Every structure is written in C-alpha cells, then in structure tokens.
What does this fold into?
Amino acid sequence: MNTEKLGRLYLPLAVTLAVLGFAPVIHADSIITSANVVGSSSGFGLITYTPGDNVSEFMLYGRTSGSADYIRSAGGNHISLGVSGNGSSGDGNLYNATRYSYSGGTPTASGTWNIESAQWLSSYTWASISFTSPASAYTADFFVHNYYAQSDLLVYRNSNLIGTYTDVMSSSSLPGGGEARDTDYFYHFGLNNLTAGDVMTFKLTNLQNLGSGWANVGFLSSSLNYVVPNAISDDYTFLTPGGVVAAVPEPSSLALLFLGLTGFGGYAAVQRFKRS
It folds into this structure.
C-alpha cells in the first residue's frame, strides 16, 4: 500500500470532517480519568461545603417534604435539581451518620442539615443524578446512603453510555467479613475531554432488595470540584469499568474522628437512623 498517497487522502478527509462538525472519537477512558469509591458502615460524619473554598457547587438532596426547596449553592446551575428515577421517595428522614454544614447556599445562606430523602426499592429500580459540565475538566462527587440495597452504576455523557460499573454498592457485607445492612458510600469521578454544557449522568441501576420492607437508597449530596478530605481519599477503592467491587474499605476511624472534630467531614458521635 502506498502510505504517502494514503496520507494525502486521509488529511483532506479529516479536515473536511472537522469543518462539517464531526469531532474525533473520544474514548470513555479519556473522559473518565479516575473513578473511586469509599464505603462506611458508620457514615462520614460532618461534611462541610464552602463554595470558593473547598467546593465549586453543591446540592443537598434531602428535603423535609416533596414540595420543599432543595438546598444548593447560590448561583450554581450545573447540578440538576433532584433525583430522577422510576419510583416514589420518602422525605423528611432524620439522618446523622453523614450530615452537613454549609455556607454560600440558597434558599438559606448557611446552616446545618441532617435530612434525607429515600428512594424506596419497593418502587425504584433505578435512580440518577446529573451534572451540566462547567468546563472541559472537573471532578464530580456524590454521597449515597444504602439500606439493604445492591446496585450497579452507569455513567452517561449526553445520554450515551460511557461507563458500566458492577456491584458498586452493596450493604450485604463488610471488608473482613460480617454484614452491615446500613452503609454510606462516597463516589469520586475525575472527568476530562468534555465540552462545557455536556450532561454527565450517574445512574444507580439494577437496584435489588437484600431483604427488608424498608430497603432504599438515598442520594445525600453531590458536588463539583470538592476537595476530598484525606481520611476519605486515602481509602479509595478504584472502580474498574465492567468489573466487580469486591470490597469497599472502611475509612480510618482515627482520621475521621479528627476531621469530624475540625468540621471538615468524618466520623463524630453518630446517631444511627435505622428503618428496620
């Protein structure tokens, strides 16, 4: 084959496609540059969101009622309101294992928050949240409470599936053995090669009830460009596309105690909320 002629043929074709608006194919692994999870059966304690300091934007999904406003960062419009799904939610649940302190918010400028809205597995088989990309590169994070549930995770860019993660959340077991049916999870995704305005959707799917009439998942919060405390990031488990997360490590209790006392997030004296 005459590679010189091939090159002369390909270059005009590439230029023509670019002019016509056909972008080069960007593989999923160049978009999702990192994917991590941490699970804790004792929650993450107090999580602090301060826009302009440790986060760009945040959203708290817990509401006192279905008609109440969501608490979110003021001026932020890159995190979609609420949780999408195919079931009915239960609002107004007091939950202290992972709770929040925030400033720069709306409709209330600052305060603390320990309200959860649950997505009941009696009706939900999937639930999702979305981000409108503010730039070509950023991080997207979210906390989820799990009660007697198991789930896979799908990641979409503009409705196109780019990531599949199997068994990313299960309250059926703990590292080292034993069972914990009440578990909180933190997910951290590094994203790149996007166009501002691209919609990134994170969908919990194949939700399965592990044996309770109260089984549910509850998106607690999400954020953009959150500065993750070391007590959480030091215990990351890497999510492998298509792979199974065999064990989700528990964060260091001493490190979380320190963070809880200083108000950056972590384990403090926890009041557990059980639905059994």
Notes: The CA atoms of residues 164 and 243 lie 8 Å apart. Confidence is low (pLDDT under 50) at residues 1-25, 249-276.
